[in-house]
Design brief:
single chain, mainly alpha, 0% strand
Length: 262
């Protein structure tokens, strides 16, 4: 029989190689599966967006009738405030993943439970943001009084995500303790992270003084770590960075347009 040389490559592997050259992705390291670029960006943007949203609505009383009345008078301002807060909350999950991974390298238990509880708490906040959006649409279609009546009638009704309210609070405390015990964060920044547990939770919750303290603590805890990740070497070349930036922008715009189309 004649021995034949096996092919050294296939079209699929050739395409993979080209994609890796055009859009390089770093191997997973201490930042976990989100990587240092996504994780570091989330650590910076998540807390900052939440704080910006909280500051935009700070002049209105925090309870839901006042929040609905404020939306009726200032719809663009309130929609922006709640949108920034919700976007920042969603962006926190890669940040939590990075922090939990770093904690888990030294103490798997603290990393596991801190990360799981904190992410579950972020799911609950996303659910609350959806209810907020619906309530604001009721204001647009029926007025603030009718929307307030509808929210009052359903306030406290059972839903699956109510079981995660404890996770909203406990997740940040467990993460903070784990970060302190493993020295991923120093004592001051660990305490600042734990302050996030004081952020009010639930539907149509506005800004309180404690909200600002909690979000300032979140910024102190995560933003320096995010900037540190983004400054680490090696860094991608300018061409690769521009390609990634362009692809990210196109993806975001496409997602927005497709989402609006239903």
């Amino acid at each position: 029989m004649t021995n034949r040389t096996a092919p050294t490559g296939t079209p699929a592997t050739a395409i993979d190689a080209r994609l890796r050259a055009l859009l390089p992705v770093e191997p997973m390291g201490a930042a976990g599966f989100t990587g240092r670029w996504a994780g570091g960006t989330a650590m910076v943007l998540g807390p900052v967006l939440m704080l910006a949203g909280a500051l935009l609505r700070v002049r209105f009383h925090f309870f839901y009738p006042d929040q609905l009345a404020a939306y009726e008078r200032h719809p663009t301002l309130m929609a922006t405030a709640y949108g920034l807060f919700a976007a920042g909350s969603v962006l926190l999950w890669p940040a939590v993943a990075v922090l939990a991974t770093r904690i888990g390298i030294r103490s798997p238990g603290w990393g596991l439970w801190g990360g799981v509880l904190a992410v579950l708490g972020l799911f609950a906040r996303t659910f609350h943001a959806g209810v907020d959006h619906l309530a604001f649409q009721l204001v647009r279609s029926h007025g603030a009084d009718a929307a307030t009546g509808a929210v009052t009638a359903g306030y406290g009704a059972f839903h699956v995500f109510a079981a995660l309210n404890l996770a909203v609070l406990a997740g940040w405390v467990v993460l903070a303790l784990g970060a302190w015990r493993t020295r991923v964060l120093g004592p001051v920044r660990a305490v600042a992270l734990g302050l996030t547990a004081a952020l009010p939770l639930g539907v149509l919750k506005g800004t309180t003084p404690m909200s600002l303290v909690a979000l300032a603590g979140l910024c102190v805890a995560l933003v320096p770590s995010g900037l540190g990740l983004l400054r680490e070497a090696p860094r991608p070349g300018r061409a690769a960075a521009l390609r990634w930036a362009g692809l990210t922008a196109v993806t975001i715009v496409s997602m927005v347009l497709i989402g609006q189309a239903g």
